[in-house]
Amino acid sequence: MTSTAAPEQIRRRRSLFGTASLHGGWRSAFWFLLPALVGFVAFYLYPALRGLYISFTDWNLIANQGSWVGTDNYERLFNDRQVWESLKITFKYTVINIASQTILAVAIAVLMDRLTKSVTIRGILLLPWLIPNVIVALLWVWMLDGNLGIVNDFLGLFGMDPVRFFTDTGKVIPSLAGINTWRHMGYTALLIFAGLQTIPRSLYEAAAVDGASERQMFRDITIPLLRPILALVLVITIVGSLQVFDTVFVATGGFGGQPGGPANASRVIYLYIYQNAFDFNQLGYAATISVLLVAILLTVTYLQLKLLRAGESDLA
Amino acid sequence: MAAILVISVFPFWWALRTGLSTNGDLFAGEQSLLPVGYTDNNFERVLGTASDEEILESLGRENTGSFDFLQSLQVSVIVSTAVTIGQVAFSAMAAYAFARMRFRGRDKLFFLFLSGLMIPPIFTLIPNLILVKNLGWLNSYLGIIAPFFLMTPFAVFFLRQFFLGISREVEEAALLDGAGHFRTFFGIIVPMSAAPLATLSILTYITAWNEFLWPLVVARDPARQPLTVALGQFTAQQPGTSPDWSGLMAGTLLAALPIIVIFLAFGRKVVDSIGFSGIK
After folding, report:
1. Which of A119, A143, A297 is facing B268, going by the closest CB pair?
2. Using a CB-CB distance cutoff of 8 angstroms, which residues of chain A are in contact with residue B255?
3. Do A297 and B130 touch (CB under 8 A)?
4. Which of the residues B32, B50, B204, B250 could staple to B44 if both were Cys, CB 3.0 to 4.6 A apart?
5. Is A76 part of any domain?
6. Are B85 and B105 a contacting pair, CB within 8 Å?
7. Alpha-carbon gap, residue B226 to B215, rounded angstroms
8. A19 falls within a domain
9. Distance between CA atoms of B186 and A154, rounded to whole angstroms?
C-alpha cells in the first residue's frame, strides 16, 4: 500500500491544476458516472429533499398536490398518541428480535465453528433469508394457525392449550418476531461465523495451557474479539427491525384480518406511515412520520457504532 | 445442530406436504408428516390447468378468490431480470470511475453515494411514487423497475471494493498502449471481475424478486403485480374461516421455487459473499 501512495498524491495534485493525468479527470469519468448519477439524483437525492419538503405540506395523492402548512404536521406528530403507540410496538418487536436472533446466531456460529465448515450446511442455514418475506410470512401463518397449525399440535403433545399466535393482542408481536428470527438466524450466524474465523487459534491454545475453562475462553476471548462483527450485526438487526413491514402486512392482513391487527396490536411504525399515506391519503403527514423514523434510525446507528467502538477489535 | 437444520428446512417440507393435500382432508384435522388425501391438483390449480372437477376435489368448494399465477410470474421475471442487468452494469461503471479515475470531488461524491445507504426506503417511497405518477408510469414495468435500474449505493460500494483490489499493472499497461477507458474497462476489468459481478447479480436478482412494498404501491393493476404482491393480495382476499390452505401453500412454494433453484445452482457464491459485508 505504501508504495502506491506517493504517485497517487502526485497525480491528484496534477489533476487539481487541471492537467489531464493518466487517469482522466471529469471528461473521461463523466460517461462512466452518468447513468448512476442520474439514478442517484432522481431516486435518492431528489426524493430525500422532496420528502423533507412534503413533510411540511398537506399533500394529497388523488389531487397530486399539496400546499405549505408550516410546522402543522410536526405539531400533530408530537400530539399523535398513535405514533408513540406504534413506536412502542416497534421497539418491543425490535427488542425481542435482538435477544432471540443474536443469542441463537452466536450459538449456531460457535457450533458450526466446532463441528463443520461444510458449505452445504451453511447454504441450508442461509436459505430462509433468501426467501421473500411474503412467502416466509405465509409459511408460518399456516404453521402457526390457531385451529389447524402444526405448531399447536406439537405443543398439544406437551399438554399445552392451543396458542392464538396471531389473534391474541399480546402474542402477535412475539409471533412476528419469531418468524423474523427464523428467517434471519442463519444469515446472522454466518456473519458471526465469518468473524470467528478471524480469531487466531493460538489464543485459545495459550488459554487452554493456562487452564482456562470453555466458558472463560468464550467470555474473555471470543466475545471481546467479536466486538466489531457483533456491533455490525446489532446495527443490521435493529435498523432492519425498526423497518419491519412485509411480514406484518401479510401475516396480519390475510384471512379477514386487518393489517396491524388484532386491534392495532401489531401496527408498527412503517405500517402506520403506510396507512397514513395510502389509506388516509395524508402523504404530507406520512412524510413527517418518516422524518421522525429517519432521525431515530440515524441516531441508533451512530450511537451503536460509537458505544461498541465498532471499528476496532481488541486484537489490534 | 441437526435440530437447527431441521427447523430451517421443515417449513418448506410442511408447505409441500400441504400443497399435495386436499383441503377437505386438511380440515378434518389429521396431522401427518405425509400429505393427507394426496393430490397434485393444487399445483394445477395454481398454474391454471386444473379442470372444474379437479378444483372441486382439492379445494372442497367453489373457487372464490384467485390470481393469475403465470401472469405474475412473468412480471417477477421481467422486473428482476431488467433490474439486475441495469443495476449491475451501471453500478459497475460508476464503481470503476470511483476506484480508478481521478476527478475533482471524487471522494466527496462517493461519500454522498454511500450516504444513500442510510436513507430508509420509506422516506423516498412517497416522493418516488409522486415522481413515477407524474411521469405516467404507474401500473407499468417502467415504474416498477426505474428506482432500481440505474444504481443502488450498495452495488456501487460492493464493486468498488473489488476493483480497488485488482492490480493496476495490467490496466496501466493497457492505458499506456493507448487503449481508452472504455476498452480497458470492458476488456480487462470486467473479465477479471467475473466472480464478484456474478455474486452481485445473484444478490440483486433475489432482492428484486423479494421486493414487496414498492410494487405494492406502484402496481395496483393485477396484470402488473409481481408474485410477492399477488400472493399478499390473494391472502388478504381469503376468508377467515376455511381458507384455501392447500392452494396457498402450492402457490407459495412455486413462487419460492426460482429462488431455491438459483440458490442450488449458485449457492456457494452467495454463501461466500456473506461476511464480505453485512449490508446485504
Report:
1. A119
2. 132, 135
3. no
4. B50
5. no
6. no
7. 7
8. no
9. 57
**Cα–Cα distance for residue pair A267/A173, rounded to 1 Å:** 9
A29 is a domain residue? no
E strands, A186-313, are none
What's the rounded Cα separation, in Å, for the pair B104 and A50? 27
Question: For residue B53, what pLDDT is reported?
Answer: 65
Average pLDDT value for residue range B83-110: 93
Quick check: B135 pLDDT over 80? yes
CB pairs under 8 A between A and B: 290
Query: Grid coordinates in use for B148?
Result: 432500481
Question: Residue B133: exposed, middle, or buried by beta-carbon count in 10 A (0-12, 13-18, 19+)?
Answer: middle
Report residue B73's pLDDT band, with 50, 70 and 90 as the boundaries: very high
Residue B119 in grid coordinates: 436513507
Residue A129 covered by a domain? yes
Question: From A286, which residue of chain B is nearest by alpha-carbon distance?
Answer: B126
Please give the pLDDT value at position A312.
55
Q: A11 and B102 in contact by Cβ < 8 A?
A: yes
Do A130 and B263 make contact, defined as CB atoms within 8 angstroms?
A: yes
What cell does A15 get?
Answer: 489533476
Please, what are the domains in chain B?
Answer: 2-65+238-273 (no CATH), 85-218 (1.10.3720.10)
Give the residue-averaged pLDDT of A36-58.
95
- Asked if A270 lies within 8 A of B147 by C-beta distance, the reply is no
Question: Nearest residue on chain A to B214, judged by CA atoms?
Answer: A246
Closest residue, chain B, to A134 (C-alpha) = B228
Helix pair B2-19, B245-273: axis angle to 10 deg: 140
CATH number of A162's domain: 1.10.3720.10
Instruction: Nearest by CB to B101, from A24, A43, A64: name it.
Output: A24
DSSP for B184-195 reads: HIIIIIHHHTHH
Answer yes or no: are the C-beta atoms of A20 and A27 closer than 8 Å. Answer: yes
Whether the Cβ atoms of residue B79 and residue B215 lie closer than 8 Å to each other: yes
Contact A272, A82 (CB under 8 A): yes
Q: How far apart are CA A22 and CA A2, in angstroms?
A: 20
Per-residue confidence at B52, pLDDT binned at 50, 70, 90?
low
The CA distance from A123 to B269, in Å, is 10
Q: Does B274 touch chain A (CB under 8 A)?
A: yes
Structural domain including A127 reads 82-307
ipTM, interface predicted TM-score of the complex: 0.88
Please list every residue in chain B whose beta carbon sits closer than 8 Å to the beta carbon of residue A185: 4
The closest of B213, B214, B233, B237 to B222, measured between CA atoms, is B233
List, in order, residues 6 or more apart from B22 with CB less than 8 Å away.
B36, B37, B39, B41, B57, B58, B59, B60, B246
Instruction: Say how many domains are in chain A.
Output: 1
Of A139, A250, A287, the CB nearest to B232: A250
Pick from B22, B102, B168, B190 the residue to mutate for testing the A interface (most A CBs within 10 Å).
B102
Asked if A32 and B271 come within 8 Å (Cβ–Cβ), the reply is no
> Most B CBs within 10 Å: which of A139, A236, A243, A271, as the mutation test of the B interface?
A139
**With an 8 Å Cβ cutoff, are A143 and B134 in contact?**
no
Helices (H), chain B: 2-19, 23-27, 41-47, 52-59, 69-100, 106-115, 121-134, 141-149, 153-165, 168-176, 181-184, 190-192, 194-210, 213-218, 227-237, 245-273
